């Protein structure tokens, strides 16, 4: 007997026997629901037999039989009503538990998000892909799917999505392409570090989404609820269905602010800020500019995160501002990193350590932020050093810059496209899905072992475009991605350590050393970051102009 919890009040299981009822009672259950019709299997006890044994144990029992594959809307409603009326916890069973899990899923459609429902059923070992459209439709069978169909559908209109659309259009202008994204505003997120350092104004980092969608590309302004890759379909909120010949998945990454207790309530006040949000980056600069003394903490959560250098960029620019104002000696800088190294590519660490020393910053490794009390100016960290028990410590602060925990978006994590960790599962060279051969992915959401940066998406978009065009023409993959990512580490105002690297930490510099030596701070790299990269982003990458981003071709052997 394997009882699988969906909620604290409901578990489901495969067929039970009369001999199981005592153990069910002892496990704390107070009622059972039978969702399997009598006579479905030769070795199956009847409901009356089960009910009689249940009564002896003081358990309530209800018979709500469902024919396999024929769960009606009324069945789901009746099941939901039974859960409300019966004493809990409740155990529901059928032949395998699938019908019971399906009934619960449909009954919860108007109470929980699709992602929560799919996560609960998936954790219990049940896939609800077959009823996704009904869940999205409030638990009811859709009467009108309203299908639209395109040659290529792109989920996400961030850096990767718009760049991929533009690159495809530049290669084959007659392609019917749709981009799905609910947002009105598109952000140049790499600029937020500069906003937090008092260098850029916030408005320099935003444009209206409509002004950036490439000409001739359809923009569907909606959120995605789920994927049906076996049907070549994307399900939107409201149960609209968009069909595709080929799919590109690039919705970015989820910033999980709620994972740190008390953080959401105090962001933007009490000295707690983050350059990972457009509206908070100006507050970072306000705090830095006004700080005369005290302790400041910069946090970095467990990997993966987008732009792994951003937490320390904030530290360096803040330290530089305090140094220039002559107050650095009065400020205690703490860098609390959940990981065990300052930067993942060792070649750049010596230059960074010089600035750690310059700003007299304390590096606290294996320190993961778990809670914050803004009004009290206190934060708690779990310290998980190797071969040592986890210790929770308290630290006081006057200012704290937080990098939030990050994960794949909910609708990705519970989809058939995800790997066990929740990321879109791709071949790291071609960026094609490992299971569904008409699906590709790029940007922060996929599981290739590269740095999650806009610079990576700039290189990935042409690779995906080349490979989709090759696929349309009946060929094999034409281009490969080498893992390139770039992290311009703003170590002081006017100087940057330009980290450029690929898979395995291989150095992949874009310029000869006499122009930019990436392992040393340079003014040339700062000029690139401040003056060159924004127009390259807006006028190059998002327009399909692949400056310094031509795909590396796959050489046939």
What does this 3D model show about the protein?
This protein folds into three domains: 4-136, Protein-Tyrosine Phosphatase, Chain A; 149-253 and 408-553, FAD/NAD(P)-binding domain (3-Layer(bba) Sandwich), CATH 3.50.50.60; 257-406, FAD/NAD(P)-binding domain, CATH 3.50.50.60. Helix content is 27%, strand content 22%. The chain is built from 15 helices and 28 strands. Strands 6, 7, 10, 11, 12, 13 and 24 form a seven-stranded mixed sheet that branches. It has a five-stranded mixed sheet with strand order 1-2-5-3-4, with helices on both faces. A five-stranded parallel sheet has the order 15-22-16-17-18, with helices on one face. Helix 3 packs across helix 4 (98-107) and helix 7 packs parallel to helix 14 (454-472). It starts with a strand and ends with a strand. The model has no long low-confidence stretch (mean pLDDT 92). Its cofactor is FAD. One of its GO terms (molecular function) is hydrolase activity. This is Beta-lactamase hydrolase-like protein.
């Amino acid at each position: 007997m394997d009882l699988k919890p969906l909620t604290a009040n409901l578990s489901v299981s495969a067929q039970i026997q009369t001999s199981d009822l005592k153990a069910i009672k002892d496990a704390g259950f107070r009622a059972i629901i039978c969702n399997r019709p009598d006579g479905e299997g030769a070795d199956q006890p009847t409901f009356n037999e089960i009910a009689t044994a249940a009564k002896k144990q003081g358990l309530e029992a209800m018979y709500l039989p469902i024919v396999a594959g024929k769960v009606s809307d009324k069945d789901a409603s009746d099941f939901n009503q039974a859960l409300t009326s019966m004493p809990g916890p409740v155990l529901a069973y059928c032949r395998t538990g699938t019908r019971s899990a399906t009934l619960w899923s449909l009954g919860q459609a108007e109470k929980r998000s699709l992602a929560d429902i799919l996560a609960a059923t998936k954790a219990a070992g049940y896939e609800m892909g077959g009823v996704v459209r009904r869940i999205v439709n409030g638990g009811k069978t859709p009467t009108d799917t309203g299908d639209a169909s395109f040659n290529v559908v792109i989920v996400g209109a961030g850096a990767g999505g718009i760049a991929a659309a533009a690159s495809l259009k530049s290669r084959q202008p007659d392609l019917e392409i749709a981009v799905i994204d609910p947002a009105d505003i598109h952000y140049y997120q790499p600029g937020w570090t500069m906003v937090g350092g008092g260098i850029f104004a916030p408005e320099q980092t935003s444009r209206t989404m409509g002004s950036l969608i490439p000409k001739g590309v359809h923009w569907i302004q909606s959120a995605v609820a789920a994927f049906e890759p076996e049907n070549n379909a994307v399900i939107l909120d409201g149960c609209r269905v968009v069909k595709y010949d080929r799919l590109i998945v690039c919705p970015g990454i989820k910033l999980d602010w709620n994972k740190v207790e008390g953080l959401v309530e105090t962001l933007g006040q009490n000295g707690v800020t983050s350059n990972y949000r457009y509206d908070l980056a100006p507050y970072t600069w306000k705090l830095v500019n006004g700080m005369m003394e005290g302790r400041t903490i910069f946090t970095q959560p467990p990997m993966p995160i987008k732009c792994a250098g951003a937490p320390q960029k904030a530290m360096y620019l803040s330290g530089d501002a305090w140094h220039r104002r002559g107050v650095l000696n009065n400020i205690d800088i703490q860098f609390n990193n959940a990981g065990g190294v300052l930067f993942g590519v060792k070649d750049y660490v010596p230059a960074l350590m010089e600035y750690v020393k310059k700003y007299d910053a304390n590096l606290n490794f294996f320190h993961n932020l778990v809670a914050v009390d803004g009004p009290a100016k206190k934060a708690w960290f779990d310290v998980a050093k190797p071969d040592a028990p986890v210790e929770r410590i308290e630290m006081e602060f006057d200012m704290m810059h937080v990098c939030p925990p990050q994960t794949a978006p909910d609708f990705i994590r519970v989809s058939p496209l995800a790997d066990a960790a929740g990321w879109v599962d791709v071949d790291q060279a071609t960026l094609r899905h490992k299971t569904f051969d008409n699906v590709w992915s790029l940007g922060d959401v996929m599981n290739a072992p590269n740095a999650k940066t806009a610079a990576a998406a700039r290189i990935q978009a042409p690779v995906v475009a080349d490979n989709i065009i090759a696929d349309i023409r009946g060929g094999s993959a034409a281009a490969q991605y080498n893992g390139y990512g770039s992290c311009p580490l703003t170590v002081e105002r006017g100087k940057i350590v330009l980290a450029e690297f690929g898979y395995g930490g291989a150095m992949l510099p874009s310029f000869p050393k006499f122009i930019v030596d990436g392992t040393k701070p340079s003014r040339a790299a700062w000029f690139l970051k401040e003056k060159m990269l924004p127009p390259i982003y807006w006028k190059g990458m998002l327009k399909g102009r692949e400056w310094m981003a031509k795909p590396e071709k796959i050489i046939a052997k």
